[in-house]
Amino acid sequence: MYSSVLSTAISGVEGVAVLVEADVSNGLPMFSMVGFLSSRVREAQDRVWTALRNTGLSFPPKRITVNLSPADIRKEGTRFDLPIAAALLGAFGYLDKEKLQGVCMAGELGLNGEVKGIRGVLSIIDTAEKNGCSLCIVPKKNLPEAVSAGRIKILGISSLKEFLEHAKEDDWGASELPDCKWRSDQEGYQEDFSEILGQETAKKAAVTAAAGFHNILFIGTKGAGKTMIAFRLPTIFPGLNREESMELSRIYSVAGLLDENRTLIKRRPFRCPHHTITPKALAGGGAYPLPGEITLAHKGILFLDELPEFSRASLEILRQPLEQRKIYISRVHGNYEFPADFLLAAAMNPCPCGYYPDRNRCSCTHHQIAAYLGKVSGPLLDRFDICTEMREVPGEMLKGQKKGKSSEELRREISRAHEIQKERYKGTEIRFNGRLGGKDTEKYCTAEKAAKKLLQRAYEKLGLSVRGYHKILKTARTIADLENSDLILESHISEAICYRSLDKKYWK
Q: Selecting from 3.40.50.300, 3.40.720.10, 2.60.200.30, 3.30.230.10, what CATH number does the domain 2-173 have?
Protein backbone atom coordinates (compact mmCIF):
# COMPACT_ATOMS: atom_id res chain seq x y z
CA MET A 1 0.00 0.00 0.00
CA TYR A 2 1.24 3.46 -0.93
CA SER A 3 0.38 6.85 0.52
CA SER A 4 1.84 10.36 0.30
CA VAL A 5 1.43 13.82 1.79
CA LEU A 6 3.03 17.20 1.17
CA SER A 7 5.42 18.88 3.61
CA THR A 8 8.10 21.55 3.41
CA ALA A 9 11.85 21.82 3.84
CA ILE A 10 13.48 25.16 4.69
CA SER A 11 16.35 26.43 2.54
CA GLY A 12 17.60 29.74 3.91
CA VAL A 13 14.28 31.38 4.75
CA GLU A 14 12.32 29.99 1.81
CA GLY A 15 10.21 26.85 1.82
CA VAL A 16 10.78 23.98 -0.61
CA ALA A 17 7.96 21.49 -1.23
CA VAL A 18 8.77 17.94 -0.09
CA LEU A 19 6.59 14.94 -0.89
CA VAL A 20 6.61 12.44 1.98
CA GLU A 21 5.91 8.97 0.57
CA ALA A 22 5.26 5.77 2.50
CA ASP A 23 5.08 2.25 1.06
CA VAL A 24 4.03 -0.83 3.03
CA SER A 25 4.59 -4.25 1.49
CA ASN A 26 5.07 -7.90 2.40
CA GLY A 27 8.56 -9.08 3.15
CA LEU A 28 11.13 -9.09 5.90
CA PRO A 29 9.89 -6.62 8.58
CA MET A 30 11.96 -3.48 8.49
CA PHE A 31 11.67 0.33 8.49
CA SER A 32 13.91 2.29 6.14
CA MET A 33 13.98 6.00 5.34
CA VAL A 34 15.64 7.56 2.28
CA GLY A 35 15.90 10.95 0.60
CA PHE A 36 19.10 12.79 1.61
CA LEU A 37 18.23 13.00 5.32
CA SER A 38 20.05 14.57 8.23
CA SER A 39 20.53 12.64 11.46
CA ARG A 40 17.59 14.48 13.10
CA VAL A 41 15.27 13.42 10.28
CA ARG A 42 16.50 9.81 10.47
CA GLU A 43 15.68 9.83 14.18
CA ALA A 44 12.06 10.45 13.18
CA GLN A 45 11.80 6.74 12.49
CA ASP A 46 11.88 5.94 16.21
CA ARG A 47 9.86 8.98 17.29
CA VAL A 48 7.06 8.35 14.79
CA TRP A 49 6.79 4.59 15.35
CA THR A 50 6.72 4.96 19.15
CA ALA A 51 4.22 7.86 18.97
CA LEU A 52 1.88 5.80 16.78
CA ARG A 53 2.00 2.81 19.15
CA ASN A 54 1.44 5.02 22.21
CA THR A 55 -1.59 6.52 20.49
CA GLY A 56 -3.19 3.08 20.64
CA LEU A 57 -2.55 1.90 17.09
CA SER A 58 -1.25 -1.52 16.20
CA PHE A 59 0.54 -2.46 12.99
CA PRO A 60 1.28 -5.86 11.43
CA PRO A 61 4.92 -6.67 10.70
CA LYS A 62 5.62 -5.29 7.23
CA ARG A 63 8.40 -3.93 5.09
CA ILE A 64 8.13 -0.12 5.39
CA THR A 65 9.89 2.37 3.14
CA VAL A 66 9.60 6.14 3.61
CA ASN A 67 10.96 8.50 0.97
CA LEU A 68 11.28 12.28 1.19
CA SER A 69 11.34 13.65 -2.35
CA PRO A 70 13.15 15.37 -4.07
CA ALA A 71 16.23 13.44 -3.00
CA ASP A 72 18.72 16.14 -4.05
CA ILE A 73 17.59 18.56 -1.29
CA ARG A 74 18.98 18.05 2.20
CA LYS A 75 16.20 17.50 4.76
CA GLU A 76 16.85 19.01 8.17
CA GLY A 77 14.85 19.40 11.40
CA THR A 78 12.00 17.63 13.13
CA ARG A 79 9.11 19.12 11.12
CA PHE A 80 8.74 15.91 9.04
CA ASP A 81 7.54 13.75 11.99
CA LEU A 82 3.84 14.52 11.48
CA PRO A 83 3.76 14.07 7.68
CA ILE A 84 5.69 10.78 8.02
CA ALA A 85 3.12 9.57 10.56
CA ALA A 86 0.25 10.69 8.28
CA ALA A 87 1.74 8.91 5.26
CA LEU A 88 2.14 5.72 7.32
CA LEU A 89 -1.44 5.94 8.58
CA GLY A 90 -2.61 6.25 4.98
CA ALA A 91 -0.47 3.32 3.83
CA PHE A 92 -1.74 1.05 6.65
CA GLY A 93 -5.36 1.99 6.00
CA TYR A 94 -6.05 3.97 9.19
CA LEU A 95 -6.57 7.09 7.13
CA ASP A 96 -8.30 7.75 3.81
CA LYS A 97 -5.43 8.44 1.41
CA GLU A 98 -7.60 10.79 -0.62
CA LYS A 99 -7.98 13.08 2.37
CA LEU A 100 -4.23 13.74 2.35
CA GLN A 101 -4.35 15.27 -1.11
CA GLY A 102 -4.28 19.07 -1.15
CA VAL A 103 -3.04 19.11 2.44
CA CYS A 104 0.36 20.31 3.66
CA MET A 105 1.51 19.51 7.18
CA ALA A 106 4.47 19.80 9.50
CA GLY A 107 5.15 19.13 13.16
CA GLU A 108 7.40 17.36 15.64
CA LEU A 109 6.11 14.34 17.54
CA GLY A 110 6.75 13.39 21.13
CA LEU A 111 6.88 9.72 22.11
CA ASN A 112 3.41 10.05 23.68
CA GLY A 113 1.89 11.29 20.43
CA GLU A 114 2.05 15.00 21.32
CA VAL A 115 2.54 17.39 18.39
CA LYS A 116 5.19 19.96 19.33
CA GLY A 117 5.94 23.41 17.90
CA ILE A 118 8.43 24.00 15.09
CA ARG A 119 10.26 26.83 13.35
CA GLY A 120 9.48 28.34 9.95
CA VAL A 121 5.68 27.92 9.94
CA LEU A 122 5.12 31.01 7.79
CA SER A 123 7.47 29.64 5.12
CA ILE A 124 5.57 26.34 5.25
CA ILE A 125 2.23 28.08 4.69
CA ASP A 126 3.68 30.12 1.84
CA THR A 127 4.92 26.91 0.18
CA ALA A 128 1.56 25.21 0.73
CA GLU A 129 -0.26 28.06 -1.00
CA LYS A 130 2.15 28.07 -3.94
CA ASN A 131 1.58 24.34 -4.42
CA GLY A 132 -2.20 24.65 -4.53
CA CYS A 133 -2.98 23.26 -1.07
CA SER A 134 -6.29 24.25 0.50
CA LEU A 135 -5.33 23.28 4.07
CA CYS A 136 -2.20 23.41 6.21
CA ILE A 137 -1.96 21.36 9.42
CA VAL A 138 0.46 22.70 12.03
CA PRO A 139 1.12 22.26 15.77
CA LYS A 140 -1.41 24.09 17.93
CA LYS A 141 1.46 26.03 19.50
CA ASN A 142 2.16 27.59 16.09
CA LEU A 143 -1.53 28.28 15.32
CA PRO A 144 -1.54 32.05 16.15
CA GLU A 145 1.49 32.56 13.92
CA ALA A 146 -0.05 30.49 11.12
CA VAL A 147 -3.44 32.22 11.24
CA SER A 148 -1.80 35.63 11.00
CA ALA A 149 -0.69 34.73 7.47
CA GLY A 150 -4.37 34.91 6.50
CA ARG A 151 -4.14 32.91 3.24
CA ILE A 152 -5.36 29.30 3.34
CA LYS A 153 -7.29 27.28 5.93
CA ILE A 154 -5.23 26.35 8.98
CA LEU A 155 -5.77 23.48 11.41
CA GLY A 156 -3.86 23.41 14.69
CA ILE A 157 -3.49 20.06 16.46
CA SER A 158 -1.91 19.08 19.76
CA SER A 159 -1.73 15.27 19.41
CA LEU A 160 -2.04 12.37 16.97
CA LYS A 161 -5.38 11.43 18.56
CA GLU A 162 -6.73 14.88 17.74
CA PHE A 163 -5.30 14.53 14.24
CA LEU A 164 -7.22 11.26 13.68
CA GLU A 165 -10.44 12.74 15.06
CA HIS A 166 -10.22 15.70 12.63
CA ALA A 167 -9.55 13.27 9.77
CA LYS A 168 -13.05 11.82 10.26
CA GLU A 169 -14.68 15.23 9.67
CA ASP A 170 -15.49 16.88 6.36
CA ASP A 171 -12.70 19.21 5.28
CA TRP A 172 -10.82 18.14 8.44
CA GLY A 173 -13.13 20.30 10.53
CA ALA A 174 -11.02 23.35 9.74
CA SER A 175 -12.82 26.67 10.21
CA GLU A 176 -12.63 29.63 7.88
CA LEU A 177 -9.86 32.13 8.54
CA PRO A 178 -10.85 35.28 10.42
CA ASP A 179 -10.76 38.51 8.46
CA CYS A 180 -7.43 39.98 9.52
CA LYS A 181 -7.21 43.72 8.89
CA TRP A 182 -3.68 44.94 8.47
CA ARG A 183 -2.40 47.62 10.81
CA SER A 184 1.24 48.55 11.17
CA ASP A 185 2.69 49.32 14.59
CA GLN A 186 4.86 52.41 14.50
CA GLU A 187 3.54 54.13 17.61
CA GLY A 188 4.40 53.98 21.28
CA TYR A 189 8.19 54.33 21.15
CA GLN A 190 9.70 55.46 24.45
CA GLU A 191 12.36 57.48 22.62
CA ASP A 192 11.59 60.59 20.58
CA PHE A 193 13.65 62.80 18.29
CA SER A 194 12.47 65.92 20.13
CA GLU A 195 14.63 64.83 23.09
CA ILE A 196 17.78 65.57 21.09
CA LEU A 197 18.93 69.13 21.75
CA GLY A 198 21.35 70.74 19.33
CA GLN A 199 23.09 68.63 16.64
CA GLU A 200 20.82 70.03 13.92
CA THR A 201 23.14 68.94 11.11
CA ALA A 202 23.27 65.36 12.38
CA LYS A 203 19.49 65.28 12.81
CA LYS A 204 18.99 66.53 9.26
CA ALA A 205 21.41 63.86 8.04
CA ALA A 206 19.44 61.19 9.94
CA VAL A 207 16.17 62.36 8.38
CA THR A 208 17.74 62.29 4.90
CA ALA A 209 19.07 58.77 5.55
CA ALA A 210 15.63 57.54 6.61
CA ALA A 211 13.87 59.27 3.71
CA GLY A 212 16.05 57.67 1.02
CA PHE A 213 17.29 54.55 2.87
CA HIS A 214 20.88 55.80 2.75
CA ASN A 215 23.64 54.23 4.84
CA ILE A 216 24.89 56.73 7.43
CA LEU A 217 28.02 57.11 9.56
CA PHE A 218 28.14 59.31 12.67
CA ILE A 219 31.66 60.35 13.68
CA GLY A 220 32.55 62.63 16.53
CA THR A 221 33.73 63.07 20.09
CA LYS A 222 32.42 60.80 22.80
CA GLY A 223 29.25 62.02 24.48
CA ALA A 224 28.16 64.03 21.44
CA GLY A 225 24.94 62.01 21.03
CA LYS A 226 25.84 59.67 18.16
CA THR A 227 24.24 56.61 19.75
CA MET A 228 21.29 58.68 20.97
CA ILE A 229 20.37 59.73 17.43
CA ALA A 230 20.95 56.23 16.04
CA PHE A 231 18.61 54.65 18.60
CA ARG A 232 15.88 57.09 17.56
CA LEU A 233 16.12 56.29 13.87
CA PRO A 234 13.38 53.59 14.07
CA THR A 235 10.95 56.16 15.48
CA ILE A 236 10.97 58.27 12.29
CA PHE A 237 10.59 55.42 9.82
CA PRO A 238 7.12 54.81 8.34
CA GLY A 239 5.62 51.45 9.28
CA LEU A 240 5.87 48.23 7.35
CA ASN A 241 3.23 47.27 4.81
CA ARG A 242 1.72 43.78 4.98
CA GLU A 243 4.03 42.32 2.32
CA GLU A 244 7.14 43.59 4.12
CA SER A 245 5.82 42.35 7.45
CA MET A 246 5.19 38.85 6.11
CA GLU A 247 8.64 38.72 4.53
CA LEU A 248 10.27 39.82 7.76
CA SER A 249 8.13 37.53 9.90
CA ARG A 250 9.19 34.52 7.82
CA ILE A 251 12.80 35.32 8.65
CA TYR A 252 12.11 35.57 12.37
CA SER A 253 9.99 32.41 12.26
CA VAL A 254 12.86 30.42 10.72
CA ALA A 255 15.22 31.89 13.32
CA GLY A 256 12.83 30.85 16.10
CA LEU A 257 12.38 34.44 17.32
CA LEU A 258 8.59 34.63 17.07
CA ASP A 259 6.49 33.82 20.10
CA GLU A 260 2.79 33.43 20.85
CA ASN A 261 2.45 37.09 21.78
CA ARG A 262 4.21 38.37 18.64
CA THR A 263 2.96 36.43 15.65
CA LEU A 264 3.95 39.06 13.07
CA ILE A 265 6.76 41.61 12.99
CA LYS A 266 5.01 44.95 12.57
CA ARG A 267 7.91 47.28 13.35
CA ARG A 268 11.07 47.77 11.36
CA PRO A 269 13.82 45.88 13.17
CA PHE A 270 16.67 47.68 14.87
CA ARG A 271 19.61 45.34 15.42
CA CYS A 272 22.54 46.52 17.49
CA PRO A 273 25.10 43.70 17.86
CA HIS A 274 28.05 44.05 20.24
CA HIS A 275 31.42 44.71 18.64
CA THR A 276 32.66 41.28 19.78
CA ILE A 277 30.21 39.54 17.43
CA THR A 278 31.72 36.84 15.21
CA PRO A 279 31.50 36.95 11.41
CA LYS A 280 29.23 33.87 11.43
CA ALA A 281 26.81 35.46 13.89
CA LEU A 282 26.71 38.59 11.77
CA ALA A 283 26.28 36.89 8.40
CA GLY A 284 24.46 33.73 9.48
CA GLY A 285 26.15 30.40 9.90
CA GLY A 286 26.19 26.88 11.19
CA ALA A 287 26.20 23.55 9.36
CA TYR A 288 22.65 24.39 8.31
CA PRO A 289 22.75 28.19 8.35
CA LEU A 290 20.23 30.26 10.26
CA PRO A 291 19.73 34.01 9.70
CA GLY A 292 22.43 36.25 11.17
CA GLU A 293 22.17 39.87 12.32
CA ILE A 294 22.45 41.10 8.73
CA THR A 295 19.31 39.20 7.76
CA LEU A 296 17.47 39.94 11.01
CA ALA A 297 17.90 43.65 10.16
CA HIS A 298 16.12 43.14 6.80
CA LYS A 299 13.80 46.08 5.98
CA GLY A 300 15.17 47.85 9.04
CA ILE A 301 18.36 49.18 10.58
CA LEU A 302 21.64 47.49 11.44
CA PHE A 303 23.47 49.75 13.89
CA LEU A 304 27.17 49.18 14.57
CA ASP A 305 28.27 51.23 17.55
CA GLU A 306 32.01 51.80 17.98
CA LEU A 307 32.60 50.73 14.37
CA PRO A 308 36.44 50.38 14.51
CA GLU A 309 36.14 47.95 17.44
CA PHE A 310 34.51 45.32 15.24
CA SER A 311 36.86 42.74 13.77
CA ARG A 312 38.09 43.35 10.24
CA ALA A 313 36.56 40.04 9.11
CA SER A 314 33.14 41.05 10.43
CA LEU A 315 33.22 44.46 8.76
CA GLU A 316 34.35 43.15 5.39
CA ILE A 317 31.42 40.72 5.34
CA LEU A 318 29.13 43.74 5.02
CA ARG A 319 30.47 44.84 1.65
CA GLN A 320 28.70 42.28 -0.52
CA PRO A 321 25.22 42.43 1.08
CA LEU A 322 25.32 46.24 1.07
CA GLU A 323 25.56 46.13 -2.71
CA GLN A 324 23.46 43.08 -3.59
CA ARG A 325 20.89 43.25 -0.76
CA LYS A 326 21.38 39.52 -0.28
CA ILE A 327 23.94 37.32 1.39
CA TYR A 328 25.04 33.94 0.08
CA ILE A 329 26.40 31.19 2.32
CA SER A 330 27.96 28.02 0.93
CA ARG A 331 28.13 24.79 2.87
CA VAL A 332 28.96 21.18 2.02
CA HIS A 333 25.27 20.30 1.84
CA GLY A 334 24.22 23.21 -0.35
CA ASN A 335 24.12 26.93 -1.01
CA TYR A 336 21.86 29.22 0.99
CA GLU A 337 20.50 32.66 0.17
CA PHE A 338 19.30 35.12 2.81
CA PRO A 339 17.71 38.56 2.21
CA ALA A 340 19.74 41.50 3.52
CA ASP A 341 18.08 44.75 2.47
CA PHE A 342 18.92 46.94 5.45
CA LEU A 343 20.04 50.45 6.27
CA LEU A 344 23.51 50.44 7.80
CA ALA A 345 23.99 53.01 10.54
CA ALA A 346 27.31 53.23 12.35
CA ALA A 347 28.93 55.41 14.98
CA MET A 348 32.58 55.89 15.86
CA ASN A 349 35.01 58.10 17.69
CA PRO A 350 37.72 59.82 15.63
CA CYS A 351 40.48 58.34 17.81
CA PRO A 352 41.01 55.87 20.68
CA CYS A 353 40.48 58.50 23.38
CA GLY A 354 37.55 60.07 21.52
CA TYR A 355 38.61 63.75 21.59
CA TYR A 356 40.40 64.28 18.27
CA PRO A 357 40.73 66.86 16.66
CA ASP A 358 40.67 68.78 19.97
CA ARG A 359 44.39 68.66 20.73
CA ASN A 360 43.84 70.22 24.15
CA ARG A 361 42.15 67.03 25.30
CA CYS A 362 43.29 64.40 22.75
CA SER A 363 46.35 62.48 23.95
CA CYS A 364 46.62 60.14 20.93
CA THR A 365 49.63 60.20 18.62
CA HIS A 366 49.21 60.60 14.87
CA HIS A 367 50.15 56.95 14.46
CA GLN A 368 47.46 55.82 16.95
CA ILE A 369 44.83 57.95 15.22
CA ALA A 370 45.78 56.64 11.76
CA ALA A 371 45.79 53.02 13.01
CA TYR A 372 42.38 53.48 14.66
CA LEU A 373 40.76 55.05 11.60
CA GLY A 374 42.48 52.49 9.38
CA LYS A 375 40.37 49.73 10.94
CA VAL A 376 37.56 50.97 8.68
CA SER A 377 38.62 50.10 5.13
CA GLY A 378 38.18 52.46 2.22
CA PRO A 379 35.79 50.15 0.30
CA LEU A 380 33.52 49.87 3.35
CA LEU A 381 33.67 53.61 3.97
CA ASP A 382 32.66 54.12 0.36
CA ARG A 383 29.40 52.26 1.08
CA PHE A 384 28.18 55.08 3.33
CA ASP A 385 26.07 57.64 1.47
CA ILE A 386 26.13 60.04 4.39
CA CYS A 387 28.94 60.81 6.82
CA THR A 388 28.18 63.45 9.44
CA GLU A 389 30.40 64.92 12.16
CA MET A 390 29.17 65.55 15.68
CA ARG A 391 30.81 67.71 18.35
CA GLU A 392 30.02 67.91 22.02
CA VAL A 393 27.38 70.59 22.61
CA PRO A 394 28.34 73.09 25.36
CA GLY A 395 25.93 73.22 28.28
CA GLU A 396 25.30 76.97 27.93
CA MET A 397 24.00 76.42 24.37
CA LEU A 398 21.34 74.03 25.63
CA LYS A 399 19.83 76.44 28.14
CA GLY A 400 16.43 77.61 27.02
CA GLN A 401 16.71 75.81 23.70
CA LYS A 402 13.37 74.75 22.28
CA LYS A 403 12.66 71.15 21.47
CA GLY A 404 12.89 70.23 17.81
CA LYS A 405 10.39 68.34 15.73
CA SER A 406 8.93 65.19 17.24
CA SER A 407 9.39 61.75 15.74
CA GLU A 408 5.77 61.79 14.58
CA GLU A 409 6.27 65.07 12.67
CA LEU A 410 9.46 63.80 11.06
CA ARG A 411 7.78 60.49 10.22
CA ARG A 412 5.08 62.36 8.28
CA GLU A 413 7.73 64.26 6.31
CA ILE A 414 9.60 61.06 5.53
CA SER A 415 6.35 59.31 4.56
CA ARG A 416 5.70 62.03 1.97
CA ALA A 417 9.21 61.52 0.57
CA HIS A 418 8.58 57.76 0.43
CA GLU A 419 5.34 58.31 -1.47
CA ILE A 420 7.17 60.50 -4.00
CA GLN A 421 9.73 57.73 -4.53
CA LYS A 422 7.02 55.09 -4.77
CA GLU A 423 5.32 57.02 -7.55
CA ARG A 424 8.61 57.77 -9.32
CA TYR A 425 9.72 54.12 -9.38
CA LYS A 426 6.32 52.59 -10.09
CA GLY A 427 6.68 49.50 -12.27
CA THR A 428 10.30 48.88 -11.19
CA GLU A 429 11.90 46.93 -8.36
CA ILE A 430 13.35 50.14 -6.91
CA ARG A 431 11.69 51.58 -3.81
CA PHE A 432 14.15 54.14 -2.45
CA ASN A 433 16.71 56.56 -3.84
CA GLY A 434 19.45 54.81 -1.89
CA ARG A 435 18.84 51.65 -3.94
CA LEU A 436 19.45 53.22 -7.36
CA GLY A 437 22.06 51.63 -9.60
CA GLY A 438 24.48 53.55 -11.82
CA LYS A 439 22.25 53.74 -14.91
CA ASP A 440 19.14 54.40 -12.83
CA THR A 441 20.88 57.27 -11.04
CA GLU A 442 21.55 59.05 -14.32
CA LYS A 443 17.96 58.40 -15.42
CA TYR A 444 16.04 59.53 -12.34
CA CYS A 445 18.35 62.09 -10.71
CA THR A 446 17.83 65.08 -13.01
CA ALA A 447 19.61 68.22 -11.87
CA GLU A 448 19.70 71.84 -12.97
CA LYS A 449 22.72 73.11 -14.90
CA ALA A 450 24.34 74.86 -11.92
CA ALA A 451 23.95 71.74 -9.80
CA LYS A 452 25.66 69.60 -12.44
CA LYS A 453 28.61 72.01 -12.65
CA LEU A 454 29.01 72.00 -8.86
CA LEU A 455 28.97 68.19 -8.78
CA GLN A 456 31.57 68.00 -11.55
CA ARG A 457 33.91 70.36 -9.65
CA ALA A 458 33.49 68.31 -6.49
CA TYR A 459 34.25 65.11 -8.40
CA GLU A 460 37.54 66.53 -9.65
CA LYS A 461 38.61 68.37 -6.50
CA LEU A 462 37.73 65.69 -3.93
CA GLY A 463 38.99 62.81 -6.04
CA LEU A 464 35.71 60.93 -5.77
CA SER A 465 35.15 57.45 -7.13
CA VAL A 466 32.34 56.84 -9.58
CA ARG A 467 30.44 55.21 -6.71
CA GLY A 468 30.98 58.36 -4.62
CA TYR A 469 29.76 60.55 -7.49
CA HIS A 470 26.54 58.56 -7.76
CA LYS A 471 26.02 58.53 -4.00
CA ILE A 472 26.12 62.34 -3.90
CA LEU A 473 23.56 62.44 -6.69
CA LYS A 474 21.27 59.93 -4.93
CA THR A 475 21.51 61.78 -1.63
CA ALA A 476 20.74 65.07 -3.37
CA ARG A 477 17.69 63.42 -4.94
CA THR A 478 16.41 62.54 -1.45
CA ILE A 479 17.06 66.07 -0.15
CA ALA A 480 15.07 67.41 -3.12
CA ASP A 481 12.22 64.98 -2.34
CA LEU A 482 12.08 66.19 1.26
CA GLU A 483 11.69 69.72 -0.09
CA ASN A 484 9.15 68.51 -2.67
CA SER A 485 11.35 69.62 -5.58
CA ASP A 486 11.15 67.77 -8.90
CA LEU A 487 14.56 69.09 -9.94
CA ILE A 488 17.82 68.70 -8.01
CA LEU A 489 19.05 72.19 -7.21
CA GLU A 490 22.52 73.50 -6.49
CA SER A 491 21.71 73.75 -2.77
CA HIS A 492 20.76 70.06 -2.72
CA ILE A 493 24.06 69.06 -4.35
CA SER A 494 25.97 71.30 -1.94
CA GLU A 495 24.38 69.64 1.10
CA ALA A 496 25.01 66.16 -0.32
CA ILE A 497 28.68 67.02 -0.96
CA CYS A 498 29.06 68.00 2.69
CA TYR A 499 27.93 64.51 3.64
CA ARG A 500 30.61 62.96 1.41
CA SER A 501 33.54 65.32 2.04
CA LEU A 502 33.84 64.65 5.76
CA ASP A 503 35.54 61.31 5.27
CA LYS A 504 38.33 63.13 3.40
CA LYS A 505 38.98 65.12 6.56
CA TYR A 506 39.79 62.07 8.68
CA TRP A 507 40.89 59.47 6.12
CA LYS A 508 43.59 61.31 4.21
A: 3.30.230.10
